[in-house]
Design goal:
The chain is an alpha/beta fold. It is 36% helix and 24% strand. It has ten helices and ten strands. The protein has helices at 40-48, 70-73, 90-95, 107-116, 132-144, 162-179, 190-196, 214-219, 224-233, 238-243; strands at residues 2-11, 14-24, 29-33, 55-60, 63-64, 75-78, 150-154, 182-187, 199-204, 207-212. The strands form two sheets. The chain has a six-stranded mixed beta sheet, sandwiched between helices. A four-stranded antiparallel beta sheet has the order 2-1-4-5, covered by helices on one side.
Length: 250
């Protein structure tokens, strides 16, 4: 379990995360959803260990990791722009992190991940030859062969659309289920959060507006802010999204 207790963070006197507490169970997919400036990226960076907190505590599997550095935490992130190495081909990108930590994955496990993400036919290609969806899969493979304790995804589908977007969503859910991998996704897209996650954390000005399963948020929004935020930003017809969780919205 990942547990955050009374987390506070300010920048230049402005509070960005305000007394936030939450727990995420092992193997859960949790999306952090919010508008620009809500604090979602700051919270992701706090969990990763890139950003220090002003006060509060962070626990992983019962151990206090508040003062543990990013490398020692063993949480890995796939950035929005994929951060692939353009001078290396697909296979070398996937294996990059294993150069100095070969014990992290066996050769059999690397090959399994290549097949799971359907990358075998692309292994000798340069990054410039890949589509957006293919780059996303390479970035996922490179991260997953390092066996992260938690997988963090920063706007993983923002550059994708249509069938490719749905395929990547399904791949991520398949991997999480197979490896029981705790996964945290930062997104600004309610549709993405509601259809991918076990729970959705909605932030408003650094505070938790609601933290619940998608069907609860759809049918039992905590307040008018939640309802308006979800309805305003949905990228598909609201009747379709509500039908995914049973019934329709009045």
């Amino acid at each position: 379990m990942l547990k955050l207790t009374d987390i506070k963070k300010s920048f230049h006197g402005t509070t960005v995360i305000d007394n936030l507490s939450l727990s995420i169970e092992k193997g859960e997919i949790v999306s952090i959803l919010g508008s620009s400036g809500s604090g979602k990226t700051t919270l992701l960076n706090i969990i990763l260990g890139m950003t220090d907190i002003d006060s509060g505590s962070i626990y992983w599997e019962g151990e206090n990791i508040t003062q543990v550095g990013m490398k020692q935490r063993g949480f890995n992130i796939v950035f929005q722009d994929y951060a692939l190495f353009p001078n290396l081909n697909v296979e070398k990108n996937i294996r990059y992190g294993l150069r100095n930590k070969k014990e992290m994955s066996t050769e059999e496990e690397v090959q399994e991940m290549i097949d799971l993400l359907d990358l075998r036919k692309h292994l000798n290609k340069s990054i410039s030859q890949l589509s957006g969806g293919q780059k996303q899969r390479v970035a996922l493979a490179r991260t997953l062969v390092m066996k992260p304790k938690i997988l963090l995804l920063d706007e993983p589908l923002s550059a994708l659309d249509g069938v490719i977007k749905e395929n990547i969503k399904n791949r991520i859910k398949e991997i999480v289920e197979q490896f029981q991998l705790t996964t945290i996704i930062v997104t600004h897209d309610p549709e993405e959060a509601l259809t991918m996650s076990d729970k959705v954390l909605i932030l408003n000005q650094g505070k938790i507006a609601q933290y619940a399963a998608p069907h609860e948020i759809i049918h039992e929004p905590a307040d008018n802010f939640i309802e308006e935020f979800i309805l305003r930003q949905l990228t598909i017809k609201k009747d379709n999204i509500f039908s995914l969780f049973g019934g329709s919205h009045a």
